[in-house]
Description:
Helix content is 24%, strand content 30%.
Amino acid sequence: MITRHDPADIHPPLGTYTQAVEIGPGMRMLTVSGQVGMGPDGTLAEGIEAQLRQTWANIAAILGAAGMRLTDIVKITTIVVRTEDLKVHGRIRGEVLGAHRAAATGFCVSALATPEVLCEIEVTAAAPPRS
């Protein structure tokens, strides 16, 4: 069982996330390494929007390989090289996840693995045991 916590005695979330996610006993957990906007052929998508969309496609594929869905994500960490791209990510994350809310952290760094990589996202997911 997964429970989201947004206590009334602190500020409401400032975006499309929840303040905390509690993962109950017996749940399977999956930690996904930081993903970038590189397609299956090894080509890096051009521009922040294309990289974010490819990054989310990669995350969806990894979750699927583990028998999980995007709605099983309980934690998202987003890293960008330009602060303004956090808003772009928020919009695209909303398109990808819809109403689903996970705990989330976003921050800006001066560079990622190579100068062409504009974003990196890692997630943690939790789901009931496989039948």
